[in-house]
Amino acid sequence: MAVMRSRKYAQYSDGDILRLYASDPVGEDLHFLSIEIEQRNLSAQAENSLKAARKKNRHSLLYYLFYVAMALFFIARFGSDYL
Hints:
Elements: H1 7-10, H2 14-22, H3 27-39, H4 43-56, H5 61-82
Helix pairs in contact: 2-3, 2-4
């Protein structure tokens, strides 16, 4: 069965295709990127780039700062009870 490929993505390099796929595309972009990955036999590399992108995006700096601030508030409130 013939698959309709996007002209835009057909011109991109393999690295560009993997980078775009790792950024969690939606809709039409996801469809055409999936077709390009199938046509170029990049499925194993796409899975690896997706895993790496998900590991990288676990928590932001604000997440950790929030918990540091909460720990400081806890110590300020209850710390004098133990000294």
